[in-house]
Amino acid sequence: MTANFALNSLHVHVLTRNLFLFPFLWMLIENHSGLDMWWGYDKVLPKGMGAGARRHSEHHRNPNNYYQPYLCWLDDLMIWWQTSYGDVK
């Protein structure tokens, strides 16, 4: 796991690493499960703070959209930009 390797290389305390790792794994499993449940983190967090399984599934169908698992306001901004100004290359 790249995230765990990065935390190890920064010499982060074991408790801090575990506090980060478990929510990160939960979001990773939830995104890749494809289940859009009512208790998902994208439904619990305020709008734009989490993407969830639905957006992640859309990312696998169209890899040019929805990169962020959380803080997805940047994805929304990029989609707005593409629809407003076209695909800039």
Blueprint (SSEs and pairs):
Elements: H1 2-9, H2 14-33, H3 41-44, H4 52-61, H5 73-85
Helix pairs in contact: 2-4
Structural features, described:
It is a single chain. By secondary structure, the protein is mainly α. It has one domain. 62% of the residues lie in helices and 0% in strands. The chain is built from 5 helices and no strands. Helix 2 crosses helix 4. The radius of gyration is 15 Å and the shape is globular. The model has no long low-confidence stretch (mean pLDDT 79).
Short précis:
This protein is 62% helix and 0% strand. By secondary structure, the chain is mainly α. It starts with a helix and ends with a helix.
Distance, first to last CA: 33 Å
Q: How many domain regions?
A: 1
Count the beta strands: 0
Helix/strand-derived category reads mainly alpha
| Radius of gyration, in angstroms, nearest whole number | 15 Å
Mean pLDDT: 79
Descriptive key words:
mainly alpha; 5 helices; 62% helix; globular; 89 residues
